[in-house]
Write a structure and sequence with these properties.
alpha+beta, Beta-lactamase, Peptidoglycan synthesis regulatory factor (PBP3), Domain 2, 5-stranded antiparallel β-sheet, globular, Peptidase_S11_C_sf, carboxypeptidase, Peptidase_S11_C, cell wall biogenesis/degradation
């Protein structure tokens, strides 16, 4: 599927709040940072935490939320990746990391996203915010609203790019949550994992090639790295939200407040190494897989398959794979009419008899109340079969 062809679809990101967050005491690991988190990207389960909910300045890691809102805007159909964006005076005036764009020049949403993802373009963030929301202020309101929806209780955004400003903060845990939502968009992989690219910047007739070199060295240094975003200011220190995938296991590591760039990359590698060494992803069921056949009393059809709404997988400690069992719990009496895709219950995953996760199961097809003629036909079929 082309980058500009994806259609609006439902994206379900479950929020895990009431989980124990393993710390140095449980893992034997201490990270050289003000705060750190290691999270399973599939379930949201926290595998390691160090000052996970401490409110800290995130620098350019802020842009995870900016990119998330833009891609969700594309997903909903409000904007498109192919849209042309005119760079405003405000966007062009941004300092720090930028694409050095001039007021009045034009770029597509996709080009600006690439600039934000690869070179942390502050000017690109402002241009994208203005395109989606009409103004930076309205976009920032949307950032805080989305943070609340995702359960990010330790965050407050004041700008789109993380440039130093009062009362702009988040936490390692919250960054992991919004990073998990962002990489649910497969489109991000082509920007996060690309090391170098070029883009033309400048007004018509004065365009010049501008080189894009990814700020995230993790993608060159760590096998399986798939992103996500670096950040640095004097106040925030060296920060990183990094993700990697191996053998179907996808992890997100967040490091905040390191004293050097080398330390942040070294510590994120330690976090990810710990996760891949101790945990593995276990696939429970595939999207659309039939879990049971539901008999519909006085309905047509008389049976409807109950299927998985999405792929189901959980993370377990290595060696515990065989201790996983599942059971189906239905919601109760099913009223007609029944709509295709309607939630009917949940597939419950148990480890050693204790509940670990739940996944929605839905109706494959619609069903309605049968007419007298349809009930008669069903009755005759039963008589023939017996």
């Amino acid at each position: 599927m082309g980058i500009d062809q994806f259609q609006p679809q439902e994206r379900s990101i479950s929020i895990v709040n009431a989980r124990v967050e393993p710390s140095e005491k449980e893992t034997g690991m201490k990270v050289k940072a003000k705060a750190a988190v290691l999270m399973d990207a599939v379930s949201g389960e926290v595998l390691f935490a160090q000052n996970a909910h401490k409110k800290l300045p995130p620098a350019s890691v802020t842009k995870v939320m900016t990119m998330l809102l833009i891609l969700e805007g594309c997903d909903s159909g409000k904007i498109r990746l192919s849209d042309t964006v005119t760079i405003s005076e405000r966007a062009a005036s941004m300092g720090g990391s930028q694409m050095y764009m001039e007021p009045g020049e034009q770029h597509t949403v996709e080009e600006l996203l690439k600039g934000v993802a690869m070179v942390s373009a502050n000017d690109g963030c402002v241009a994208l915010a203005e395109h989606l929301a009409g103004s930076v202020e309205m976009f920032v309101e949307q950032m805080n609203k989305r943070a609340a929806e995702l359960g990010m209780k330790d965050s407050h955004f004041v700008n789109t790019n993380g440039l130093p400003v009062a009362n702009h903060y988040t936490s390692a845990y919250d960054i992991a949550v919004m990073s998990r939502a962002l990489i649910a968009f497969p489109e991000t992989a082509q920007w996060f994992t690309k090391w170098q690219d070029t883009i033309k910047v400048g007004l018509p007739g004065k365009e010049k090639e501008f080189g894009l070199t990814n700020t995230n060295k993790l993608i060159k240094q760590y096998p399986g790295a798939i992103g996500i975003k670096t950040g640095f200011t004097q106040d925030a220190g060296y920060c990183l939200s990094g993700a990697a995938e191996r053998d179907g296991t996808r992890l997100i590591g967040v490091i905040l407040g390191c004293t050097t760039s080398n330390i942040r990359f070294a510590e994120i590698k330690r976090l990810l190494d710990y996760g891949f060494s101790n945990y593995e992803s276990v696939k429970i069921a595939e999207k659309g897989q039939v879990q049971k056949a539901l008999k519909i009393e006085k309905g047509t059809p008389s049976k409807v398959d109950v299927i998985m709404e999405d792929d189901a997988a959980i993370l377990v400690k290595k060696g515990n794979k065989n201790r996983i069992k599942t059971k189906i719990e239905m919601d109760g009496y099913i009223k007609l009419p029944l709509k295709r895709g309607q939630k009917l219950g949940e597939l419950v995953v148990l480890q050693d008899g204790k509940e670990k996760e739940r996944f929605p199961i839905v109706a494959r097809d619609s069903a309605k109340k049968a007419s007298i003629k349809e009930l008669y036909i069903q009755m005759m079929k039963k008589l023939i079969e017996t």
